[in-house]
Amino acid sequence: MRIIAGRHRGRRLLAPPGAGTRPTADRVRQALFDMLWHAPWGGRERVEGATVLDAFAGTGALGLEALSRGAARACFLETDRAALAALRANIAACREEARCSVLGADATRPPRAPEPCGLVFLDPPYAEGLMEAALGALAQAGWFSGEALICAEYAAGTAAPPPGFTLLAERAHGAAHLLVLRPAAAG
């Protein structure tokens, strides 16, 4: 697993041993960022300069990819100790400590957001059904800006836009089904 593009292109990322963490595959991350970059509702400005939330961060691949492509800063939420160690090592390997904050927090019971984020990545464990709970809790805690793009990764065949969110795009990539959402109030 590596950073696909930007200033950290080619940087290898550590993943904790075992099956507890399922990093988003390089090809899925590339497809997601291509959508963000080229869609009518997206564009470079949606990534460059963005404040990013990577919830269920695992290795931090999504948030670090965004930083590599010009995001201003990223916050990572993760609870697994092995994943937190890998995440911190990956941030250090990219020398991005100054632009990152890591919270050992559950995305279904998050702390209040220090600031709303314009670009959000949610990649919870597929089998645990955590997506809707996390979306609701993060919205309540102020993590989404009004125009936020929320990139939600589901298991193939299980994705549906949750209430309170507008579906902008969806794509299937092997075992992953990506939905790009916006808070419904934003239209």
UniProtKB/TrEMBL annotation:
<dbReference type="Pfam" id="PF03602">
    <property type="entry name" value="Cons_hypoth95"/>
</dbReference>
<dbReference type="InterPro" id="IPR004398">
    <property type="entry name" value="RNA_MeTrfase_RsmD"/>
</dbReference>
<dbReference type="GO" id="GO:0008168">
    <property type="term" value="F:methyltransferase activity"/>
</dbReference>
<keyword id="KW-0808">Transferase</keyword>
<dbReference type="GO" id="GO:0031167">
    <property type="term" value="P:rRNA methylation"/>
</dbReference>
<protein>
    <submittedName>
        <fullName>16S rRNA (Guanine966-N2)-methyltransferase</fullName>
    </submittedName>
</protein>
<dbReference type="InterPro" id="IPR029063">
    <property type="entry name" value="SAM-dependent_MTases_sf"/>
</dbReference>
<keyword id="KW-0489">Methyltransferase</keyword>
